[in-house]
Structure formats: C-alpha cells, structure tokens
Fold these 4 entries.
Entry 1:
Amino acid sequence: MTTIHIEKHSANPGTAPSEETQNVRQRLLKSAIKLFGEKGYAATSVNEIVSAAGVTKPNLYYYFTNKEGIYITILSEALTGYDEIFNRASQAQGSARQRLMEICIEVYQQFVRNIDTSRMIYSVYFGPHQSAPPFDFETFRMRHIQLLHDLILYGISIKEFRAGDPHIMTLAVLGQCHTAMELELCHSGPTLGQEGLTKVLELLFESFAINRTAITEE
Amino acid sequence: MTTIHIEKHSANPGTAPSEETQNVRQRLLKSAIKLFGEKGYAATSVNEIVSAAGVTKPNLYYYFTNKEGIYITILSEALTGYDEIFNRASQAQGSARQRLMEICIEVYQQFVRNIDTSRMIYSVYFGPHQSAPPFDFETFRMRHIQLLHDLILYGISIKEFRAGDPHIMTLAVLGQCHTAMELELCHSGPTLGQEGLTKVLELLFESFAINRTAITEE
C-alpha cells in the first residue's frame, strides 16, 4: 500500500529520479535534520518530519523505511562527505603544511556548508542519551586523526617539520579545526571564520617548521 | 510541612550546617548532575533526582526550591569555580606566557575534576533545546576570552610576544584549552591530558615569542 502512494511522485519509475522525487527526499532530510537538532531524536516524531517537509508519511517510509532510517541516512551522508575530503587529501601533492592546511579548510567548509547537520551531530554526540540508534562516530574521528598524523610524520620525514611529538602536533592541528567549527555553533561571541582558521593554523605551522619564517609584523 | 521533614536532618538548627545536611545537599547535586547530563533537563523528574540521591522530596524543595533551582545552582556553582580562576589569574604575576599557561591548566583541571558537570554543560549547550530554564553562558565565555586577550596584549606590549593579531592569538589559545577538555568527553581515541595540553600550548607560545627558543629535538 505504501508504494502505491509513492508511485504518484515518481513520473518515470525505473529511470533516473525526477526532479520532484529528488526534492521530496531532500525536503524530508532537511526537516529531519532541523528537528533532530532542535528537539533531539527521541522527541521528534515521523508526523512532525513529514509535516515540516510538506509531504505525506508514505514518502518517508519509501525513501527511508522509518525514523531510524532517515536518521542513519543523515549521519552517513554527512560522514561520507568528510570521507571524500580525506580520500582526496590522502592522494594530494604538495608540502605537508599545504596539505594539512587544505584538509583543515575543506573540513571547515563542509561543516559550515551543512551547519544544520553539524549542529545535529554535536547535539547527538554531546547531548543527552536520546535512545537514538547507535552510530559509529569513532571510526570516522579516528580516520581524521590518522590522516593528520600521517601528514605530520611525512612532514617530519622530509625535514619540513622539526622532530616533535607527532601525537601532540596532530591534536594541536585538530584542535584548531574543531575550534573554528565550534565557534560557528556558539550563540554569540567572536568566530574565526575561514580566514581566522587559516591564520591560527599558520601560527601553529610556524612552530612546526624547521626554519622559522619571518612573519613578525613589527 | 516541608520544613518539618527537613529539621530531622539538621541536628543543630541555627548553627553551621551539620555534616549530614552538607551530605544531603551534595548528594542531591550529584544525582541531578548525572541525570541532567544523561537524560536532559526536561526528561529528568524530581522523583528521579531524590531517588538517586537516596533522600526524600522535601529535601530537594528545602535546598533548591524546585527542579529549576537545582539546575541553576549546578550551573552557577560550576561557573563560579571558573570565575575564581579568572580572578586569581587577572591578579597573578609573571610573564604573559606563564600566566596564560597557568590559567589554561587551571581551567582544564577544574573541567576534569568536575567531569560530570562538564558533560552536563556540554549537553545543555550543544544538545537539543530542552525547555530548560535559560542560563547565561555567554557572559562567562566572553569573560574567559577577554582575559586571554588582555594577557596577550600585555605580552605584546612588553615585547614578550611579537605583534600579531591578538584576536587570532586569543582564539588559538582558547582552542587548545577547549580541545584538551573536549577530548576528555569523547568516547574513545587519544586524549591530551594535562601534560599534552602543556605541550600544545608550548608549541603555540613558541610561535608567539619574539625570540624562538631552541626546542628542536633533532
């Protein structure tokens, strides 16, 4: 019965999704992201999601099976976006400093471009246990850390960076990325923005460098 | 009627609180911190708090008036602890670098010592709106930022630090504090610890310094 309702939305079943079906799916994702972020997973109902999206319930069941399905889809698609950045970064050319800068800026841009999803991820990760379905954030976090760590080790191996503690250097870089991102989630006060993130990373990379560059402004 | 229950717990009414009344108050705070952090403010009932504390309901009403009262007390006491650190820090002597390091380490220690409260604060701040009573986190955040900023300006004025952008330098320091603290809240992966925080700050301060110190380990 569910599919009968849905077929109405798909003008050409069996072919590429029409613009309208794409829109329905996107509208559902957008509503769910906002509601999960604002109210939490448990407090959000399927009715609220479909109503906010302006579509009928069977659409949600068709595209995502159930509330858990749309939740997992949101998180998986978000982390896939970051994984693509990590994949490109691990193939990229250039100095360790350039490559670290690029990956940090791209991660920051992805976070800001999808700020509602980012807010939802923080809400799920740091918020109260919401009897939300389990989701493996940790594999993703560890992949990010590992990539930064490998780039720092590479920088040390080619004598671009001095031989510091790669674990500390990695967490220092990660910290500046996270700070720039979190300041976007705060309710007031200064943010760093992309330009600020570039500057704090430049400060940090200067201390990694074997040869200090002259950036004193005096 | 409420007070009748309470007087039983106070062996010497009118004198300093006995050890038992102190314990009752502390037990209530501890249970509420855990429950608000795990379930959120709205989902936690007064019954659950008193039951977890092993005390009767009138005790909660006596010490905190209601659920809102215990919630506001927890947050106020936590932020008062940080305010004391900021007050001491603004009076302290020493180089800008030493003073920045001391304040960061003290804030980190306070955060870890009260890890359940810290978890609750993150849960409230980043978690879903929980129809929790409003609480002014922003004044506190701005005070922390202002203090770091003043110390950095001081460092620049005495030519201990080079003339960089004090806004960027401030957020870079703040970022490393926050990272060390947040890694304590994460569910897995590397943490920095106090020693790691000291090291990332040293990395950063090195790039602030007019004269780079020789800490290359090669």
Entry 2:
Amino acid sequence: MKHIVLASTSTLFGEAYLAYLQPVMATLYQGVDEIIFVPFARPGGISHDAYTAKAAAAFAPLGIRVTGLHTFADPAAAISQAQGFFTGGGNTFLLVKQLHELQLMQPLKAAVESGKPYMGCSAGSNIGGISMQTTNDMPIVYPPTFETMGLIPFNLNPHYLDPIPGLPHMGETRETRIGEFHTQNTTPVLGLREGSWVYVKDGTITLEGTLSARIFEAGKAPYELEAGSSLSFLR
Amino acid sequence: MKHIVLASTSTLFGEAYLAYLQPVMATLYQGVDEIIFVPFARPGGISHDAYTAKAAAAFAPLGIRVTGLHTFADPAAAISQAQGFFTGGGNTFLLVKQLHELQLMQPLKAAVESGKPYMGCSAGSNIGGISMQTTNDMPIVYPPTFETMGLIPFNLNPHYLDPIPGLPHMGETRETRIGEFHTQNTTPVLGLREGSWVYVKDGTITLEGTLSARIFEAGKAPYELEAGSSLSFLR
C-alpha cells in the first residue's frame, strides 16, 4: 500500500524549511531511520551536497539520517534497498531530466508503489503526478520526456496562486495556463495552495492542510474542494 | 538587413489588442499590404481561425491584409513568398512544437533574415531568441526541441515581472527562475517589461518603449538598462 505526502511547498512564509510538515513527516516515516534524498531539482542552483545537508538538518529532529541519491555508485540499487524517500523542490525540468537520464524514474516509482514512504515538495510533488506538464518552472533544460511517476492519477500545480486583484499585469493567470493545458490534455489538475498537501494511504487520497484546493477537470469549470476532502474520485 | 519588433506583450492593461504598437507596426510594415499571421500559440485555446481574425482586425487600420499560416496547403512556400510576418502570443510550447513539426521554423528564420519584416508578441517574441527556455509558459505539449530562430543573439523573458513586495507567496520569483536558467546555460536574457519591445534595424538592436529592462548575464548580478539603449552588446 502506497504511503505518500505530496506538498505544495517546503516552506511557509516566515517559517523554517519543512517546519510545518514535521508532524506529517513523523507519521509518514514512522519506523524509518534513514532515507534517500533526491537533490536533483537544485533550487537556485544549490549543489547536490549543500541541498542534501539542508534536508538532513530538517530530518535530524526526527532521528532520520539523510543520504543524497547523487552519492551512490549504483543509485538504482540504493533505491531498491532504501527505507524511504524525500524529493526536494527546485526546477522540475532539471529534476525530471536527471531522473530519466540516470534511468531512476521507474526504480523510484516501483519502490514507492511497493509501500516505501515518499514525500515530495513542489518539484518533488510534481513528479508524483502523471506528467510534469503543469509545473510553474522555467524549461532551463530539455528532459527526454515530460512523463513522471504517476503515483496519483492526476497532475499537481504546486504553489497554486489565485489571480491578484488589481494587478495590471497582462501575463496569463495560473487558471488560464491550466485551462490551456486542458485544450491539449485530459489529465485532471489539482491546484495545491502553499500549506496544502496530498496524502495517500491505505488506497485513499486526501487533501490535507487548512486551505481548499482548486480542481481543474477538462471540459468543466474549475471549482474549490475543502481541506480534508477525499481526492479518490479525481482521475 | 533584418527588420524586427519583438514585444513583451500584445496588449496593455485597459487597451485594445495591439493598440500601443500601431505606430511601430506602421513603420515596420511600411510598403507591405499583406502579411502571414502565425496563430499556433493559441492563447486560451482559441482556434487558429478566430485568432487570425483577431490579428486581422488589428492590422486593418494599416491597410494590411492578414492570412493565417494554417490556411496554406504549402506553408513553407507561402513563407518564402510572403511580404512579412506576425506571430501572436499564447503558449510557447504549442507554438514551438507546431513550427518544428511542420518544419517551418527554419523557413521562417530564413525569410526574416532575408529582410522581410517580422513582429512577435510574447510567445511570438520568445521564438526570436536563441531558445524558448526562458518562457513563462506551462509545458502543455512536448516540443521536439527548445531551439528557436535566434534572430537576436540572446533570449527574452516577456511579461517580465518584478517581485511583488509583501507577497507571502514562496514560489520562485522571475529573477530566481532566470538565475536557475543561468546555472545551466550561458545565453544572456533580457527581462522585457510589458510595454517594452526590442527593435532590430540596420544591424542595430535597441530597447524601445518607456520602461527600463532587466539584463541577466551568466555570472553577473542582474542590472537595469534604460529605454532607448542599444542592445547590440548583448550576446
């Protein structure tokens, strides 16, 4: 049975890295004393080592050791032997390119589907969806495909942002962009606001946190779903 | 000699489509009575026909007829015979995929480099750069490559948006995203605010409009460049 947390963001405004997720992590990683961290999204261009150190500091209070996936001579074998995983945010194109080119997307998917706990934030959550095609990130590198793990039967739009009233900017709103996605694709999209996360356990999928999320289904008007709601209908 | 306008946006807040660009268009398309419109970016999923009609209405006051590129049986031949071009905004991934798959990116580049006037707005401006890798758009389709026409020796970031003070949103700012681009690429990037455009004529490249633009060069701190400045140094 899959056990997964896909969070909109790692960090809430004014808070420390992963601070608001500590209780969730304690539940998700119960009984786990070491995880593999996937640092490939490199937010702001941070090095794999520095990013892994940042993640390790946030897992230390839980008594969980963190090892970067980039440090293994045989990362696919390391994934199959790991107790659990965390993929940090950053640039989704970079993350997806690296995972595919190192042929690690399928091993990671298989390990998570076998029941090993997985947490993603932002880009790390995007790869839990069907594809990375509803990321907000800039295409700074060219991945061999946009397909991701499909741990859930829909796509995420992390850091979902409502239109800002009175802003005279004419660039597309997030809602317009997701509408454009649905002119070309039918995969449902969950607009996940900062502070919200998707929780997968015992075959159910739930919207967690305190905020509602915005649901986009092809051919339907977007609508809000309250925190605590089941997402199992969305496919 | 190339004669090109690459605008940040088609439409200023509260104004009609292409209204602020009418004087620029009168100069760019002087002596031209018909252009080809490239409708492939399909903003909001609008049809090729509907988008072409919208462009035609904005060109009518100049006495210029507009024909959609999608209407030609042999679009490559049509490009080689055309008097000039306009590519509208929308989704850059869709635009680039279509141009490459129909093998029209190179013919369009060749025609513009032969001196035929070209105007782009937003996505239509992105394809004037080296690559589409600094677009703001969502990757709703998978193009065969991110390379574009390279009519100018740098990339654009249209609808350039400064950080909004006091916004507690933790998603990346535009400046952070472009910084991430430069961890992987060395192509300079021009952050082009709405109301600004790049003007190429007689071998010179100039920043036009009333606003400054933000210049991003790999390994340097970003800086502002005043309207009216030459951009010929940027490569």
Entry 3:
Amino acid sequence: MTAPGGDTQHGIRRRNLARVLRAVAAHGPLSRPAVAARIGLTRAGVAPLVEELLRAGLLVETGRAAPSGRGRPGSELAVSDRGPAGIGAEIGVDHLAVCAVDLRGRIRARVAADAANRDSAPGPVLRRLSVLLAEATARIAPEGLRPAGLAVAVPGLVARGSTTVVHAPNLGWRAADLAPGLAPATAAGDGSPGIPLTVENEANLGALAELALGGDGEGRPGSPPDFVHVSAEIGIGAAVVVDGQLLRGARGFAGELGHVPVYPDGRACDCGGRGCLEQYAGEQAVLRAGGLTPERAAAAHPGPGARIALLARRAAEGDTATLRALREAGTALGIALAGAVNLLDPQAVVLGGALAGLAPWVLPSLERELTLRTAVAADPGRHGGPAVTASRLGADGPLLGAAHSALRTVLDDPLHSCTPAHSPRSRIG
Amino acid sequence: MTAPGGDTQHGIRRRNLARVLRAVAAHGPLSRPAVAARIGLTRAGVAPLVEELLRAGLLVETGRAAPSGRGRPGSELAVSDRGPAGIGAEIGVDHLAVCAVDLRGRIRARVAADAANRDSAPGPVLRRLSVLLAEATARIAPEGLRPAGLAVAVPGLVARGSTTVVHAPNLGWRAADLAPGLAPATAAGDGSPGIPLTVENEANLGALAELALGGDGEGRPGSPPDFVHVSAEIGIGAAVVVDGQLLRGARGFAGELGHVPVYPDGRACDCGGRGCLEQYAGEQAVLRAGGLTPERAAAAHPGPGARIALLARRAAEGDTATLRALREAGTALGIALAGAVNLLDPQAVVLGGALAGLAPWVLPSLERELTLRTAVAADPGRHGGPAVTASRLGADGPLLGAAHSALRTVLDDPLHSCTPAHSPRSRIG
C-alpha cells in the first residue's frame, strides 16, 4: 500500500500541506503550535507550510493573538472565506439546484428551479442547469470567491471515475456523458485548464454531506465512519460508507438498495426483477398505496418536497390509507436493510432525502423488522441492530454533499488546485 | 490519511523492506535491478534493503546469476524456504485442522482430525487443537521452520481486532476468548513475547486464501480485488473484499449472508428471524429437502466434506429429491446474492467451501435469479450481473487463508517479526 503521492519529498510535502489545511478547516481558528500538535509535526516543520498556505490565500490570520505564549507570538489561523468555492449541483426528476460553499463550509449562494426533467434529453436539462450555475457564480464573484470544482448529483448510476450517467431510470437517461454539456460551465475563460467536474450518484453525495455536516450542521462530523445512508426521492438509493470512505463498487454501481429483492415473488419492477424494495417504499408505490394517483399528485404538487409534505400532512391528520402505506414502506425498508446490516455491519443507518421527513411514520415498522432480522449480528446480550436515525439534512443532503465534494480537490492538494490571485480566474457560466 | 508507520524515516524504511520482500515473494526469483524496477526505487536505494533481508534470513540468493548484465553482477533473489512459517488452524463443527506454510506460500505440514465440536465447550476443543499444533510444529522444526504467527478460523462472529468469538451458533459458543486456551501454543519458551494470535471468521479467511491463491494455486492472485466470497459448511457466511481488503464491519460482524432475509414470511430461523438464507441453502436444509435426516446423515458421514460428497453423489446419480433441493438452494442463494450485488457491485461472486463441490447443481438456478434481479446494476447492453465462479480451493480455503494470514505479520513488517537465527525460538505446543 502506497500513500497518496508516494514517499517522495514532493508527495510528503503535499500531504502535509493538506493536513495543515484540513486541521484548520476542521478545528480552526488555531494557533501555529496547536496546528503542529494536531498533525504530529514539529513547530519548525509546520511554519513553512503555514506560510505557503497564507501566501496562496487559503489560510488567513484572524488578527487575534494566539493564546499560547511560547515562541514567536502570532495571530491565530483560520481558513479563508474568500478564494476557492465548491460548487454543487443537483439534477432531480423535477427540480434543479446549485449551491456554492466556501472553505469554511458555509453556503454562500444557492439557486433552485422546478423543472420537468423526467424523460427530457440531457441537452436541455444541462442548458438550464448552466444558467443556474452562471447565476451562482455571479453571486459569489463580488465576495472574492471563485469556483474550484463542480460536482453534480444525479439520481442514477455513474461509471466509476467518469462523468457518464450509465443509467438514470427516472430521468430516462442511458450512457449520457455530462461533460460536453457542462463544458461552458467548467472551462476557464482563457483556454487554460478549467475546474474539475465530477458526476456522482445522489445517495453517495448525501452520505458525504452526512459525514461532513450531519453532526451539528456546523461542520463537525456527526455520523459514525461506518454507516448506510438511505436516500429516497422518486427512486431509492443508498450509500455505503466504510471507515469514512464511500464504497463505490467495481464499476461505481454500489448502493442500489431500491432493487434489493424484498418479496421475491412480489410486484414486477421496471428493472426486470420482481419484489424490489422500490415497489413498496418508492414514492410512487407509497402514493398509490395511500390512495393517490402518482401522476395527478405530481401535477398538483410539483417540485422537491411537495409530495413528501403532502404525505406527511395526511399522515399527521391520521389518514388511514397513508398511515398504512408508510407502515408498509417501513416494513419493506426494514427487510432490505436487514440484509444490508447482516452483510455490512454498519454502526448506523441514516435515513436521508424524502425518508427523513417521513421518519415518524416509517421508523416503527422499519425498526421492528431490523431488530427481528439482525439478532445474530447483534451484540450478545443486547437486542437489535444498529441505530437508525433520520438525517438532519433531509432533502438537502445530495446538493450540500456535492458542494463539499467539489472542495475536496482543494483540501486534498491545496497548492495544485490553488489559482494565485493574479492569474486568470476560472469561470462558471 | 496517514501511511502505516507515518512519514518518519523509520516508517518509510519499514514499508520499503516490506515492499522488497513482497515483490520477491510474489514475483521471485528476481535480480536486484528487477526488484528496484518493481517497487519504483533506485538500485542504490534497494541494495541496503536487500542486504538486511538477506542477513535476517528472509531472502536468499539462488546462486543463479541474474540475467541483467548492467552493474555489479549478482545472484537472483528468492524468499527463503526456511525461517518463519505461518500457522493456520481451523475449528469446524465436526473437524479440526492445522497447516503450516512457508514464505514461498507452500504447505509444509498439514494435520487434521474428525472432532465432535458441536455444543462442546471451548476448553476441550482448544486442548485437542493444541495437540495438532504441537504435531505440526514438530514436523516443520527439522526443516528450519519456526512459527511466526497463528491464525484460527472459526465458524462464527469474531469481535474486530480481538481473539473473542462473540457467537458461533453451530458450535454453541458465546463470548469465548480463545487466547487463554491457546496460550501454551503461542507462548515463547523463554518468557519472551510469543507469536501473534489472530482469530477470524472462516469466510473471511477463505476470501484471503482466494486472494492469495485462487488464481492458479501457485500463489499468483486470481480473484479480482472486489468480490463476494460465499462460504458454506454447516452455516453460510460470506466475506466482502473491496480493493483487495476485507470489509469487516464496525464490530467485525460483516458477511452474515446466511441471515439475509430471502423469503420474509418463510421458515423460522434459530437466529429469531424468518426466511433467512440458511433455512434454504444451509447444509441441514438441503439434506432435509433431499429426503435425508440431518442427524442421521451426520452420524453416517462424519468429517469435513463427507456429507457434501454424499449430496454430490446423489445429484450425479440423478436423485430427484436431491436435485430439487440443490436447485432450491441455488434459487435462495441467487436472491440473497442479488441483494448483495445490488448493494456492493462486486466484480465477481466466488462460491467456496461446500458450495464449490456442489456448484454444478446449484449454479444454474443461482445465476438465473442473479441475472433477473440485477438488471439495473448490469452494464447497459449487457444482461446480467457479475461472474459467478466456484473456488478452486473448495473446503480448503479457510485453513489455507489462516496460514497465509498468519504470515502477514512477517510480510508487513519483516524485521520486527524476524527472530534472528541465534535467538531463542518461539514454539507452538
């Protein structure tokens, strides 16, 4: 096993720069000695790294004197609220959204629009998305922020390490490379290399948001490093996080929880299988079981979250059919997750997306199945499986995760991705 | 992320020693320049590492001149067939086995015995195992081999990083720490630290064997680095390998494929659940469905492999009940594995243990379900899921995997674990 960058002087320096930046981003403001202590280097070793990050504009001195008295007095260090911004975008079945976060993890711009993307070709969708991207970039530019990377969340399978959506059933997309359609948004104005583009399954990005923000919404990590993050919008997906890293699968197709067989002789699924989870806990299945017509509900309640709000309202009002539908969805989720827990032994299961808002009605039956079916894997003497919690981020997870993921290139390799202030800026839009 | 050993000089040297040893173990005999080329160091950088490994007796010169003519001529290097040996042990429901492999990965001793371990307390089982361990050590000692580590395969859950069997349902063990009972086998004779002991789930060790040996039985890796290894003896377990590493789970309990729900309203399982895979594809279920009484079959056909041979013979003779039982086991396996494949997207599924010997009758129905239920995760245009293959190692996998795993401490940190020839030897037994 080789460390990233190898054991060359260059590789070690790059890793140490990243460690300094991450330490200040996660725990700052910090004095120089506190940085050194956090990353296990000497104060003399940390000093030149800090100077480089200050010169590059990634760190700033707060002006407040560091409390520690030993050695040369110095100001505390913080990450800059100017400079690189991570741009996240989300392509939903019926909405588009863009947000920009700074190095401190704060949202600096956010734009969204309803959009009828189902069965629309990628071209028009990406053109509308580019308009939103340009709007977000225009908003952050006056504040000294420039896009450092763009990550796009999609409800479908993405080939590992590529920008190609292999299959997004609810959009009707197959083998669609998003890079050409987003080229205007990622190109630098002057022909120099533009900003990096990543395309990622929405459930994976929701899990990354959970890792970065799930704790208290202030950037302190809250989720345990091993968890299964369930994401439901129109479809149902999951992300598997092991030791704080996404498990992507050989081709990048891991996490297809929606097509785990729950009732093997049950309802036929569009995927060609039978009895898939999505047929019992997907939005359309729940609407139908609750006595609603999915198409009519979609027309009457367009946009992200509207139909979830409808279901939540009906459930809160005690509507019998809705309550039964959500209970049955929870049972199906519990059976599918029991399989996942037996296979993966996570510390927790986090319900994100639409499920977060419906948790009060879904959780009881879900937990009953999970407890019943994971007894072998439970701790001896303790009954039941891992903790099941609803994400605090709810439907925002994938978009926030995308923006944070776009910042990773900066955090992993601070100087490579850093454009000095005097060089031409990349632009989005 | 920090590399093992960190970026200290000591850590870097240790990693480089390990790289040299692994390169020669995997590809030797090799000339010094060939070693340098393989691990990306200069010839001058490699020379002192090689000398240290030669002095420690881990590498030897073959005496054959290296083909490359540049620089100082030298003999080709190979790993030693003396020195440290990995000791693997297996505690089965009705057998015990021990084997020793040398640094070249060759089996140098192997002893086994039938044993009625079901519902026997750990004490007597470990005493019998210690006798076998002493026998194996006595056999390899005259050949200049000494135990460098002991790994024990058990059919149950092992708490991560511990030697404690949390639950082995088919042995009737709960919260059993194996270290005290194996202390005589792992202690050094002179009171110095003995050899390291690891206790591991058998399916995990079967997967490690597959990684190390599955290719051609000659030590060249054959399995892709992402696979699910299914292991069946009395129970059914699985190991999930991601990027060549075992996925262990938060507590070490990952891989409980036998308790993945297949028919959620189906047969009650000892685990408290319902419709678990083990109730349809476990040995007892198959024997019963094939018209046999499991207890009578166990009495008439004791020992590892005997009942599998019985089922294989009946199937080969065309016995209708046996063929149907194996077909139904394949269907249940296919449903459970469809869930695993949708969640994990492995490159391959490998059937090990008893399933390897029954593959001809289990595979057709297994593959039919897997193909039907993983269409979304399949490559577009290509139908079906990952390749399903039967392990060439069959029921030997866990034992061989244990022995190779015991060698890992040497390969990961060659000089730390190396006892110079003149120092007192550790002993087993």
Entry 4:
Amino acid sequence: MCEANAYLIEGDEKKLIMEAVDTVDPEGEGITLVSIFGEQKFLKAHHIHALSLVDHRIFLKADG
Amino acid sequence: MCEANAYLIEGDEKKLIMEAVDTVDPEGEGITLVSIFGEQKFLKAHHIHALSLVDHRIFLKADG
C-alpha cells in the first residue's frame, strides 16, 4: 500500500494527526483527510505544505 | 516503493508533469518536486492542491 502519515507542523514540532492517509482534498475553508480505513478528519484553514512519499510523510500547516 | 505521479490541474485538464515523485517542498515563491531518480522540477507560484496516494496521484495547481 502507498498511504502516508500526516503530520501537522507547528513551529519546530511535527505532530502526527492521522496515519495511513489515502486522500487529502480541499473542502470549504480547509482540507479533508481520509485514511485507508475510512476515518475522516477536517482541518479548517490548513493546507498541504510538503511531501516525502518514500518516507510515507505528508506535512500540513495552518494557513497564513 | 511509494512514489506518485504529479499532475497539474488546469481548468478541466490534468497534465502529467512528473512521474515517480518522492518529495515536494515549498521553495521561494513556488514548489520543488524531486523524483526517486533525482530529477528536479521547480514550479513558480504553484501549490499542492490534493492527494490520492493509493492511486499514486499528487495534484498541483497554480496559486490564486
């Protein structure tokens, strides 16, 4: 499988917020993450910041 | 391996711009893509729009 873990960057910290993410889509004023298990999470005013796919990592950040 | 293909969304079209992408990082006023083969591409004024990792797809879009 080719899913990745999503981390939220806050200053110098990287906080794991969802494992095994399949899709990330813009929705309204934020982004919706869906895992391969069907788990969903909406993050208002956040965007996809960077990717490191061989390491299975997605980095998200608050807007602005 | 867990790389994905990067597509640029332009209106209704999805244009393949790089295969086997490993990392995408913000750099200056745009994003830099690096493939697992070491190939690099810089896209000025673009951002990561959406992901569909099980399908090995990254979607990019022009800013604004």
